[in-house]
Design a protein that fits this description.
The protein has about 80 residues and is an all-alpha fold. Helices cover about 75% and strands about 0% of the residues. It has 4 helices and no strands. It has helices spanning about 1-20, 25-35, 40-45, 50-70. The relative contact order is 0.16.
Length: about 80
């Protein structure tokens, strides 16, 4: 379906902008976790904070990203 493809492109653009707009530490956690495939433990070593703090930053980032998508009426079950 062409409209499904266009919607997917729009969602990717919204998500990309939302990731770029995250606070620096949250953006780093999201990048290292989703784009580099690191674990929260590995990220905690790199960022020199506790694993629980990385978990908090990850959760905050996901809520922010979900909020941006919901704001644009892009409700996705996988987030």
């Amino acid at each position: 379906r062409p409209e499904g493809y266009i919607e997917l492109i729009e969602i990717k653009e919204i998500l990309s902008k939302a990731i770029n707009d995250l606070p620096a530490k949250e953006k780093m956690v999201v990048s290292l976790y989703y784009f580099n495939g690191l674990t929260l433990r590995e990220i905690s070593v790199i960022m020199q904070v506790s694993e629980s703090r990385i978990s908090q930053l990850h959760t905050k980032a996901i809520f922010r990203l979900r909020g941006k998508l919901l704001k644009h009426r892009c409700i996705l079950d996988w987030i």
